[in-house]
Amino acid sequence: MFVESLTAFAIGLLIGSFLNVCIYRIPLKESVFWSRSYCPHCRHTIPFYHNIPLFSYLILRGKCANCKKKISPVYPVVELLSAAATVLIYNHFGVSGAAFFYILLIYSLIVITFIDFQTKLIPNTVLLFLLGSGVIINLLFNVISWTEALLGFIISGSIMYALAVMGKLLFKKESMGMGDVKFSAVAGFFLGWKLTIAALYFGFVFALLFAVFGKLISKSAMERVIPMGPFFSVSFFLFLLWGNHFFEVYVSIING
Ligand SMILES: [Zn+2]
């Protein structure tokens, strides 16, 4: 089990370094394939021995080997998140169609979360890629019933759309973007409608807690628009892995 988990971790690190390329290049509309990694400051091509996930960052102490400028800590964080998620999914689903289905969702959640944090936008290309791959994997492996998945897509998208419209009427400005609506619909497809509703609810709770604590720390935090994508991502991830346990606990509390 240890060797397998270690392998999953290493694969997750490698994929994480590709996710970094996506996070950095998709908002710039650059190709994520067919071009070598380069330093964003001096545009110096990074040789392969300085491009080993996580370890290169540690060895170079977070600085570019050429211009010595700081490398964003986002890179090792994304690599670690991706590695940890790969290990969790592997231990949960083994090597199976379901594992492919869900790890694809999680990698996309990581990319969406970081792009949303940095640009406040959720790119359509990532959503389309995710939905398309989800449909294909489900056709091949029957991971989730089509009724569950389609209801998840429709219900999740409609709830978020209604909230976006209501938010606009109430606050007289955009409180939630259409990106969040589309993103929730696609995630709803992967999770099925029951887990989606629960995950959306907790996503809002997380965002609310963050807003309250943010206000305690700095007054201006509340005036900024809070990107909802990262909160939904965290919530979707927790519900994907442990959602059924949450339900059991909830039901047992209700029943006393
Ligand atoms: Zn550099």
UniProtKB/TrEMBL annotation:
Ranges for domain Prepilin peptidase A24 N-terminal come to 11-93
Grouped into one coarse class, the protein's main location is: membrane
Q: Which domain of life is it from?
A: Bacteria
Q: Which GO terms describe its molecular function?
A: aspartic-type endopeptidase activity
Q: Which UniProt keywords apply?
A: Cell membrane, Membrane, Transmembrane, Transmembrane helix
Q: Where is the Prepilin type IV endopeptidase peptidase domain?
A: 103-212
Its subcellular locations are: Cell membrane
| Membrane topology category | Multi-pass membrane protein
Q: Where are the transmembrane segments?
A: 6-26, 99-117, 126-144, 150-171, 183-213, 225-243
A Pfam family (short name) is: A24_N_bact
One GO biological-process annotation of the entry reads:
signal peptide processing
Taken from the UniProt entry, a GO cellular component term is: plasma membrane
Q: Gene3D superfamilies, from UniProt?
A: 1.20.120.1220
Instruction: Quote the InterPro entries the UniProt record gives.
Output: Prepilin_IV_endopep_pep, Prepilin_pept_A24_N, Prepilin_peptidase/N-MTase
PANTHER family named in the record:
PREPILIN LEADER PEPTIDASE_N-METHYLTRANSFERASE-RELATED, TYPE 4 PREPILIN-LIKE PROTEINS LEADER PEPTIDE-PROCESSING ENZYME
Give the record's family classification: Belongs to the peptidase A24 family.
Put simply, this protein is called Prepilin peptidase
Q: Which source organism?
A: Caldithrix abyssi
